[in-house]
Design goal:
This protein is an alpha/beta fold. Helix content is 40%, strand content 18%. It has helices at residues 7-11, 26-39, 76-93, 100-120, 125-133, 143-152, 165-176, 210-223, 275-285, 297-306, and strands at 21-22, 44-49, 58-59, 62-63, 157-164, 183-193, 196-201, 243-248, 264-271, 288-291. The strands form two sheets. An eight-stranded mixed β-sheet has the order 1-10-9-8-2-5-6-7, sandwiched between helices. A two-stranded antiparallel sheet has the order 3-4. Helix 3 (76-93) packs antiparallel against helix 4, helix 5 packs across helix 7 and helix 6 runs parallel beside helix 10 (297-306). 40% of the residues are buried. The protein binds thymidine-5'-phosphate (TMP).
């Protein structure tokens, strides 16, 4: 990481096409970028949401699948049961009138029932592979370059999701054809026995506790990246990484870095829907907002500036 030595170098930083990118406070962004760059890549970690952040919102003209949404159990009866749950609970997830405590209970109920159906229906790892192969999931262009660059710089990437860790990993394997030793998935993780799903590990992560739970899981990560399930062999202490690049598609995703006690955070928001209605709030909440299902190239440029 070279230090920013002059303002003219910063002026060369254009994280994307102006039409698709909004920066409400360029001076604040420039000073955060300069601070992170001065501290170097050993101080940096990336925290990213998965669905509609690393992946595209639209795929071949339709909504891209989420990790839950793509799953087909090879058991039509159970797929239909999970679809019925989706039709009941998904409107409740977005209802503006349900109080948060009640909604949290409803989400716990949904995740609990859905996970139970996956176990009862005997989900196999082969069905996961097949589902991912047939899915409408695509990474934003530039995600592979982003992860490769961060791997080269030994910068850890923590992916937080209320979806399914095993599916996210399979999507990474099938769509990027590579595994990244710096990438750690913090999501609902399955336990298989003889190729069949028998349980889920740990506390359920749903949409309303994703960020709160992130703190619980992030605690062991402070000691040693890779201690949680041994999938990462990078033993760098994340505790020392006091600078954060955060990527999300909901304002609530900003909570993913709560509790990390960071010095400097650059936040990037992907505003995929309701652009006119949400642009002002996204512009205030995130340092950079990308619109219209933008590729990840602006973030690739940004990390080149940060490191
Ligand atoms: P996330 O992937 O943005 O973290 O959120 C998970 C989404 O998954 C959330 O919008 C609800 C959805 N979901 C399903 O589509 N099917 C399910 O069975 C469950 C439990 C959640």
């Amino acid at each position: 990481c070279e230090r920013i030595s002059s303002r003219s170098q910063m002026e060369g930083f254009h994280p994307g096409k102006a039409a698709d990118m909004v920066v409400a406070d360029r001076l604040a962004l420039e000073s955060k970028v300069a601070a992170i760059r001065a501290a170097g890549p050993a101080k940096l970690q990336v925290i990213a949401d998965f669905d509609a952040t690393l992946t595209k919102y639209w795929v071949d003209g339709r909504r891209g699948h989420s990790s839950h949404g793509l799953l087909q159990q090879d058991n039509p009866e159970f797929d239909a049961k999970r679809q019925a749950l989706y039709e009941y609970y998904h409107p409740l997830e977005f209802s503006p009138t349900i109080p948060i405590e009640e909604k949290t209970k409803l989400m716990e109920e949904w995740w609990g029932k859905s996970h139970a159906l996956l176990i009862e229906g005997g989900l196999s790892y082969d069905a996961i592979k097949k589902s991912v192969a047939n899915s409408a999931v695509a990474f934003r262009e530039g995600v592979a370059e982003l992860l490769e660059f961060l791997e080269e710089k030994n910068v850890p990437v923590l992916i937080f999701s209320a979806g399914l860790a095993d599916i996210i990993e399979e999507v990474l394997r099938q769509k990027l054809h590579k595994s990244f030793k710096n990438v750690k998935i913090i999501s609902n993780r399955m336990v298989f026995n003889d190729g069949k799903l028998v349980a889920f590990k740990g506390k359920t992560i749903h949409v309303l506790n994703k960020n709160e739970h992130a703190l619980d899981v992030a605690a062991p990560l402070h000691d040693k990246l890779g201690d949680v399930d041994g999938t990462i062999d990078d033993t760098d202490s994340v505790k020392k990484r006091t600078n954060v690049l955060l990527l999300g598609d909901h304002i609530g995703d900003l909570g993913m870095s709560d509790g990390l006690n960071y010095d400097t955070r650059v936040s990037v928001g992907f505003l995929n829907d309701n652009i006119e209605k949400s642009l002002e709030s996204y512009g205030k909440a995130f340092d950079i907002v990308y619109l219209n299902d933008s590729p990840m190239y602006g973030v690739v440029k940004l990390v080149n500036e940060l490191c």
